[in-house]
Design a protein that fits this description.
Oligomer: homodimer
Strand content of chain A: 5-15%
Shape of chain A: globular
Order of helices and strands of chain A: HHEHEHHEHHEHHHEH
Strand order of the largest sheet of chain A: 2-3-1-4-5
Distance between the termini of chain A: 59 Å
Chain lengths: 275, 275
């Protein structure tokens, strides 16, 4: 087997805009598209290096930005994705925003206020660890807002993401699709390893007990909000390496599509005196 | 020769709080403290790995933060420092803020407003690429504010940094000390290499033409604002490798001094059901 092309990865993992979408039955292993783990590692390493180069060009250009949105159940690997896909990049020009339960200042505004405030500046790559999708996921499942309000949000989110896209931000959305069994294994690991223990929160188990409700909320969000300007990709996430390798392929593809060039400075070299 | 200890690097490079300080005559090569370049590379690599570990513990703890302030003339290596000292770290939990000319919104408030707004959240490492020191450097040299205003700022800055320090933020300040000749070489390089050209700004030459005024402004800022709670370190920066290796020693030292531990989660493992 060979490393699948960026086009092949996109095609296999996208939730096609405007089409029917079902989450159940989607592969969570990643083996269907990237069987060989050694190849996945090679691919990830190569893509991380290219992403680093292209990110520097994006920064130098300073006109556009890339926003990577990561969503997934606890332990799905949001932090690990950031660490591995961007392992080669300098933190300069990267903006990682982890969205937590909203503060009272944030609750005093509409739910997109804090999100808009956190979009990456031109030239930068922004990563959202969780995002405004929580406002149609956990908020829906736990009833934190009236269902009529939640129902309005899908269109609002599409309008917001279209606005970002039309103003120079490429938006990529990844649903890290981890299996129920695999999550159980990872939660147990968090209790057993001292450097993972801090991540464990007994509240996570309450979300786990509502697994199928969460999956339904994800399915709905993805179906309604996978658009041409901001597509959803469903990433098989039972294997850390395959997960990161697949995301790296798509991130690289998005940066390549920007057709970045080293900027013409607008003056002639050789006309300066360096004393 | 051996890699100098963290204590030795600190002692050699600190501007001792409350004591006389002169910038002129300070070594810009780094050879006096770290002669062997291969050793500098080894030291940098090791320290970057340790910084990565400690940064993860800081993030897990979520109670304190580290703020690294980088100042220096153009080409002194602020971006390069970020890239190399934090080459091993994930962007999660890192906040890099590059301060540019203030916007009209920023100018409508006091000069520390935008700075306070950008301090790292608890658990994070913040890096300032330029900082509020511009308000006593370029602002002083170019007369962007009345001299009486500028004169008040040193005490204001000390009070602000003391406040941060008392509220859980370790503050480290690095002056990247590059020689006049070396800057000339680097500016020329920016014109000759396509991937550096975007960094070149003809305005940089105006700052270069006021080199000695800038050095005086730096000397004054360092003399007045090197404090026990927020010391200034003068980093010889003619060599990229030595510069980064020396900064990495001090950053590592600051993280080690925090005495970070993996947090006790406050509940007994084994009492959970993963269904």
């Amino acid at each position: 087997m060979a490393i699948p092309s960026i086009a092949a990865v996109r095609k296999a993992l996208i939730a096609p805009p405007g089409k029917a979408f079902e989450l159940s039955g989607r592969d969570t292993t990643g083996r269907e598209i990237l069987e060989d783990k050694a190849e996945a590692e090679t691919s990830l390493k190569k893509d991380a290096a290219v992403i680093n180069e292209l990110k520097d060009m994006l920064y130098a250009e300073g006109r556009r930005s890339l926003l990577v949105i990561l969503q997934g159940m606890d332990t799905a690997g949001k932090s690990g994705t950031i660490k591995s896909v961007f392992s080669e990049t300098t933190p300069l020009g990267m903006e990682v925003k982890a969205f937590k339960a909203p503060s009272s200042e944030e609750l005093a505004r509409d739910y997109l206020w804090r999100v808009h405030n956190a979009v990456p500046r031109r030239g930068n790559v922004g990563i959202f660890d969780r995002s405004h999708y929580e406002d149609v996921l956990v908020v829906r499942v736990r009833g934190f807002a009236p269902i009529e309000e939640v129902e309005k949000r899908y269109d609002q989110i599409n309008a917001f993401e279209k606005h970002l896209s039309e103003n120079g931000t490429t938006v990529l959305k990844f649903m890290l699709n981890v299996g129920y069994e695999e999550q159980g294994i990872r939660l147990k690991e968090r209790l057993e390893e001292v450097h993972k223990l801090w991540k464990f929160n007994p509240v996570d188990l309450e979300d786990r007990s509502r697994w199928s409700e969460f999956m339904q909320a994800y399915e709905l969000a993805i179906r309604r909000c996978s658009t041409r300007h901001a597509p959803w990709y469903i990433i098989p996430s039972d294997s850390l390496t395959r997960r990161s390798a697949l995301i790296a392929r798509i991130v690289r593809g998005a940066l390549e599509d920007m057709d970045l060039k080293w900027k013409d400075p607008g003056f002639a070299p050789g006309s300066f005196d360096f004393g």
